[in-house]
From TrEMBL:
<dbReference type="InterPro" id="IPR036188">
    <property type="entry name" value="FAD/NAD-bd_sf"/>
</dbReference>
<dbReference type="InterPro" id="IPR023753">
    <property type="entry name" value="FAD/NAD-binding_dom"/>
</dbReference>
<dbReference type="GO" id="GO:0019646">
    <property type="term" value="P:aerobic electron transport chain"/>
</dbReference>
<dbReference type="GO" id="GO:0003955">
    <property type="term" value="F:NAD(P)H dehydrogenase (quinone) activity"/>
</dbReference>
<comment type="similarity">
    <text>Belongs to the NADH dehydrogenase family.</text>
</comment>
<dbReference type="Pfam" id="PF07992">
    <property type="entry name" value="Pyr_redox_2"/>
</dbReference>
<keyword id="KW-0285">Flavoprotein</keyword>
<keyword id="KW-0274">FAD</keyword>
<feature type="domain" description="FAD/NAD(P)-binding">
    <location>
        <begin position="7"/>
        <end position="229"/>
    </location>
</feature>
<dbReference type="InterPro" id="IPR051169">
    <property type="entry name" value="NADH-Q_oxidoreductase"/>
</dbReference>
<protein>
    <submittedName>
        <fullName>NADH-quinone oxidoreductase subunit J</fullName>
    </submittedName>
</protein>
<keyword id="KW-0560">Oxidoreductase</keyword>
Amino acid sequence: MGGAWPEVVILGGGFAGLAAARVLERARVPYLLLDARNHHLFQPLLYQVATGFLEGPAVAYPLRALLRRGRFLLGRVERVDLEGKRLLLEGGDALPYRFLVVATGSLPSDLGVPGVREHALFLKTLGQALRVRYRLLEALEKAARRGRPLDLLVVGGGPTGVELAGALAEFLRYTLPRDFPEVPAGTVTLLEAGPRLLSAFRPALGRYAEEALAQLGVRVRLGAQVAEVG
């Protein structure tokens, strides 16, 4: 590939990859950031895209604009040649490096629950957020034709689940009567397998979240572990 051999290659343009880039910039170390997308996705706001409160571009920032001193390369890695210190890219190119920072993030897990992959909707990427939105609107149109309420279920009491459940409740409370007056009021239920919400944070924050969701009309069920999705 053309260009000088980068001192450091950062694989991934998420939060960890950008944090590594900032450290290298302060140390004035040359680097190249490689990602399969040309934008950084601000995942904490995906729930607002899923519920229609934000459009996709509002949570997708061009990576080239975020890098102050480093270079950016759009590409997908097929294999890492550790011995030769090369990244083998899709299409046949090879990218050499001296030091490699792997910050590729994670994938959603089905936790071994049967039916999750086939029937549940994940919320990890922009495409998945838009899919949730389209499925929500599709379900609302069906409910409008039948004159039936729309009941929504969110599984997982972490930050994304709590925020999504709250946004869905606000959607049903404020947007539904205006845009779908023929659809009766439905419910939003949040299931969490553990004993409290937001288990990664202080217990007081979990209690506050549960009270706030209750005020929005969300039904929170703790200790509710999903056995199968059909």
